[in-house]
Amino acid sequence: MTAQAFPRDPLPPVPPKPLSVSQRGRSGMEILGSMQKLASGVLRQHAAETFFANEKAAELNKVHIADKKPEKSVLRERIAEAKAICESDSIYRLERLVQRYVAEENYNRGIPAIEERREMFEPFVNSEATPAEGATLELNPELSEPKYWSSTEWHLEPGGWEGYDLYPAVFAFTIGPKVFSLGGYAAVGVGDKIQEQRYQVALQFPKESYQRIYEPGCGGFSTLGAVHRVFPEAELHGSDLSPSLLKGCYKMAGALGVPVHLKRTDSTKTGEADSSFDGVITYALHHEMPPKENKALFAEMFRILKPGGDIVISDPPPFRAVDLFHAVILDWDTDHREEPFFSATGESVLEDMLTEVGFENAEAYTIGSQGSYPWVTRARKPEAALN
Ligand SMILES: C[S@@+](CC[C@H](N)C(=O)[O-])C[C@H]1O[C@@H](n2cnc3c(N)ncnc32)[C@H](O)[C@@H]1O
Q1: Strands in the chain per DSSP E
Q2: pTM for this entry
Q3: pLDDT at position 2, please?
Q4: Cα–Cα distance, 382 to 32 (Å, whole number)
Q5: Is 191:183 a contact under the CB 8 Å cutoff?
Q6: pLDDT at 48
Q7: Angle at 240 between CA 235 and CA 244, to 5 degrees
Q8: What local confidence, expressed as pLDDT, does residue 1 receive?
Q9: pLDDT score at 62
Q10: How far does the centroid of ligand 1 lie from the alpha carbon of residue 252, in Å?
């Protein structure tokens, strides 16, 4: 009997190659993660100790902590004085140098690492979503974005949110797991678990259940996913200006079987009906909008909320809620990490802005176990409100 008489067993299916960057790409990103951890976890502590050991700094900080609603000009002057003290310390300067270097190198290394394997990552980015039943996505290609959004290279990201077609892969395979996951940048503390923080923020909705929840500036599925964990029965709606983030959100929600409703629109003009939601959540949005736009956004959220509906907000803590050293650190992002509105938002009192457009019981507090992050602001549309 010859071997040919027996048909060969079919070959076992070849498992798909796991998506990964090259060894060089990976190690390049891991070095950035380690540098950031060293800067924020070790150097920053030294710089803070030096700052508070300075008599003038300690005195300024005492005044700052006691001043719960500082005048903007007074606050600016105090931060400028504190900054000058910080900058006289070479460890502070080194810590900031590393922060800036990592923020910039994230893209200088992340983009080539993905580009090197374009044939692997292009299908990942361009694959069709498998939406959950009932999910919707409206990309509104005719919409023109506000100039502040399209002309800013957010966080030093070349070309801004839409600047490179494979950014979703850059975040998913390089910057996300190798750098951001370690925390220690902008307002995020060292070792913070940013997904868990979103879940804790979603828990700040005061009622036991909600029917329809809206997230303006949703970006990906991170916050909507956290809301779904807390309120699995709620119908989820999100909007953003970025087509690529919305597509990624739609895909992720589909992969997890969550029927989201997404629309590309400016969140200050949602096109949603009056009084049509009982909950609104925002996460890391307001510091990316000019104060005037934030005001318009709050008015719009008030309009689409039903009377008695709740708004829950999480954004970096305002300067008045952190010590003066931390205020200098947060303020730095405006000039050095392409965050044009970080300081303006840090100087704002979101509770007052909410009250001005009609919300009641506006309050702000931290849910962090140490420090002021995550910082939460929440309020309610009065039961008796008319739009
Ligand atoms: C830092 S991201 C946060 C995304 C998301 N909320 C999260 O928790 O990951 C800020 C998002 O706000 C969006 N954004 C900024 N201004 C906007 C506006 N006027 N209308 C809609 N989205 C906006 C940006 O495109 C970006 O996706």
Answers
A1: 136-138, 183-185, 188-190, 212-216, 235-240, 261-264, 277-283, 305-315, 360-366, 375-380
A2: 0.94
A3: 44
A4: 48
A5: yes
A6: 98
A7: 110
A8: 42
A9: 97
A10: 17
pLDDT < 50 positions in the chain:
1-5
Tokens of residue 109, six digits: 């290394």
Written as one letter, the residue type at 210 is Y
For residue 166 and ligand 1, the question of a CB distance below 6 A is answered with no
CA geometry: angle 191, 47, 284, nearest 5 deg: 40
Q: What is the CATH number of domain 19-387?
A: 3.40.50.150
Residue owning the nearest CA to atom 17 of ligand 1: 217
Nearest CA to 206 out of 275, 280, 133 is that of 280
Q: Pick the residue whose CA is nearest to atom 14 on ligand 1.
A: 217
What is the pLDDT, as a whole number, of residue 27?
Answer: 98
Task: Return the residue whose CA atom lies nearest to atom 3 of ligand 1.
Answer: 284
Predicted confidence at residue 9, as pLDDT, reads 62
Q: For 174, which DSSP code?
A: I
Please, is 11 exposed, middle or buried when counting C-beta atoms within 10 Å of its C-beta (0-12, 13-18, 19+)? exposed
Determine whether the shortest distance from the Cβ of 285 to ligand 1 is under 6 A.
yes
**CA–centroid distance for 227 within its chain:** 15
Alpha-carbon distance 31 to 173, whole Å? 15
Token pair for 183 = 């925390």
Query: How many Å apart are CA 255 and CA 257, to the nearest integer?
Result: 6
Residue with CA closest to ligand 1 atom 23: 217
Q: In this predicted structure, what is the pLDDT of residue 5?
A: 46
> Is the CB of residue 167 below 6 angstroms from any atom belonging to ligand 1?
no
